[in-house]
Design a protein that fits this description.
Blueprint (H helix, E strand, L loop, with lengths): L1 H18 L15 E9 L20 E3 L8 E6 L5 E8 L7 E6 H6 L7 E10 L20 E9 L2 H15 L2 E6 L5 E9 L2 H12 L10 E5 L6 E2 L1
Parallel strand pairs: 1-5, 2-4
Antiparallel strand pairs: 1-6, 2-5, 3-4, 3-6, 7-9, 7-10, 8-9, 8-11
Length: 235
C-alpha cells in the first residue's frame, strides 16, 4: 500500500511538471555578476553630439554603451568572444532597437575590442556595477544595488508615423496600453511600445504573448525599460 501511494505521488508530480508552461527567460538582470551573451554593434555618427537617453551629450569617444533594460550608470565588462578582448563601459543610452542585438557600444569601446571592421561581434556582458542611481558616474561605483523601473515591449519601429500608428492602434485594442515613442534619428524612428509593467519578468511574459499572437504581427517583440528622464517624446 505504501509503495503504491509513493508511486501515485511521483506520477502526480511528473504530470504536473509536464503540464506547467515554461516561462520565457528575461534579459540580463541589474545585479552584480549577471551575464548576457549575444550580438553587439556600435554607433557613432550621426548620434555623436546628440543627447543620449540619460540626458548626457553622447560622445562616441568615451567608454559608454546603450542597452534596452539596464539602469543608467550600470557598468558592464564586455568581452569580444572572437578575440577575448575586453572593455568596461557605462550604460548611458537605450538601444539597440534591432532584433537579435543586445548592446550598442560607443566607437571608442568598439575600437578597444577590435569590432569596428566587422561592425558586429558576439560578446559576453557581465555586470560589474549595478547602482540604483548614479548622479555623476565617470567611474564605477563601489556598492552594487538593484534599481527599480518600469518596462514595456517594443513591437515595431517605423520611419513612417502612419504605419506606426496603425500597429499601435491594433495592439491597443488587443493589449490595452500602446503608445508611440519618437527616437531622434535621420529620419525619425517611431517606436511602438506596449504595456507598462512593474518588473522585467512581467514584461518578458507579455513579450512572449505578443510574439506568439499571430494577429499582433510582432514576432520580433522585445523588452525595453521606460525611463522618465528620457528625451524621446511619448505620444
Amino acid at each position: 500500500m505504501k509503495r503504491t501511494l509513493c508511486m501515485a505521488v511521483a506520477a502526480g508530480i511528473l504530470l504536473s511538471g509536464c503540464g506547467a508552461k515554461k516561462r520565457a527567460r528575461p534579459p540580463v538582470a541589474a545585479r552584480l555578476g549577471s551575464t548576457e551573451t549575444g550580438t553587439a554593434s556600435w554607433y557613432g555618427h550621426p548620434y555623436h553630439g546628440r543627447r543620449a537617453a540619460n540626458g548626457e551629450i553622447y560622445d562616441m569617444e568615451k567608454m559608454t554603451a546603450a542597452h534596452r533594460t539596464l539602469p543608467f550608470g550600470t557598468w558592464l565588462e564586455v568581452k569580444n568572444l572572437s578575440n577575448d578582448k575586453t572593455v568596461k563601459v557605462r550604460i548611458t543610452d537605450r538601444g539597440p532597437f534591432v532584433q537579435g542585438r543586445i548592446l550598442d557600444l560607443s566607437h571608442a569601446a568598439a575600437v578597444s575590442i577590435a569590432m569596428i571592421g566587422p561592425g558586429v561581434a558576439k560578446v559576453k556582458c557581465t555586470v560589474v556595477v549595478a547602482p540604483v542611481q548614479v548622479a555623476n558616474a565617470s567611474a564605477p561605483a563601489a556598492t552594487p544595488q538593484r534599481a527599480p523601473g518600469l518596462f514595456a515591449v517594443q513591437t515595431g519601429s517605423f520611419a513612417d508615423r502612419r504605419n506606426a500608428e496603425r500597429l499601435r492602434s491594433s495592439l491597443e485594442r488587443r493589449y490595452g496600453n500602446a503608445r508611440l515613442v519618437a527616437r531622434d534619428a535621420q529620419p525619425v524612428q517611431w517606436r511602438v511600445l506596449v504595456g507598462r509593467e512593474a518588473t522585467e519578468e512581467d514584461a518578458t511574459v507579455l513579450a512572449e504573448r505578443i510574439r506568439t499572437d499571430p494577429d499582433a504581427q510582432a514576432a520580433g517583440a522585445f523588452v525595453v525599460r521606460l525611463d522618465e528622464a528620457a528625451p524621446d517624446s511619448i505620444q
